[in-house]
Amino acid sequence: MTARLADIAAQAGVSEATVSRVLNGKPGVAAATRQSVLAALDVLGYERPVRLRQRSAGLVGLITPELENPIFPALAQVIGQALTRQGYTPVLATQTPGGSTEDELTEMLVDRGVSGIIFVSGLHADTTADMGRYDQLRAQGVPFVLVDGFSPKVRAPFISPDDRAATRLAVTHLVSLGHTRIGLALGPKRFVPVQRKIEGFVRTMRDQLALPPDAIESELVEHSLYTLEGGQAAASALLDRGCTAVVCASDMMALGAIRAARQRGLEVPDDVSVVGFDDSPLIAFTDPPLTTVRKPVPAMGQAAVRTLLEEIGGTPAPHSEFVFLPELVVRGSTASAPGGRTRP
CB atoms < 10 A from the CB of 113, how many? Predict the structure, then answer.
């Protein structure tokens, strides 16, 4: 027990006597100090004494499309931690092909009396989906926040990355390296983030390379699935059209693009440059380390929780979209265009 007290005291930066007071529920300890001791317990893997376990303020549902793409677990972790810090218990509900749909998961969460729901990349991002489901949810009095994908038909707060800026950053970087034949690989066109990435791509290619917009979209944009195999297929089509660089709408697609290049005996980045999107966990350790546009996951996750808790607290956010700027992270998968000089 003494050894454990010493470990906790060292981790929290307080005396063993203070740790003892906190563990025994004694008064006279500042709130910040008490939190430091509880955090030290958590970090060291000790179980909190029963009397110190915070009673949950309620359940909050988090619905994600899948967990194979590492960006979704990363976002779920940020949201889960932020909810826990506020005393709520996160309930993760994941859609699976052939399994539960978004509507079924929503019904299940509502039946369990959740205080609110955060939807990530849900049907709200699909321009062909019926948005009436969200009106019904609002009519049931369940607060909710929508992440990734805006719809003017849904009266709720939205949290989004700036998808237009994402492709602008990627294209500007590649043009500065001397690339003039740049392709864009992304998911199905019915999704709002896809449409916005195309808008940013077409506008930047037009402004920087003076290419006609119709030609850009017909020749240099390829739709596929947000998977490694989807990226491979899309990149293959773009390489067939003479592209020396490929911008991908996810890091998983970018890994597929690298595979497509290598299958042709091409080197990345010497022959083909590849840019991803998300900056998923571990993506800096691929071969080569991936140049990507970092999605502001911590800021977006925390904003989603803050906005939802305001809704739960009775001060709803306006029907608006909170847009977060992405950041270009240059690593080893991009280089000067083959046979060309880097522009000054």
Answer: 9
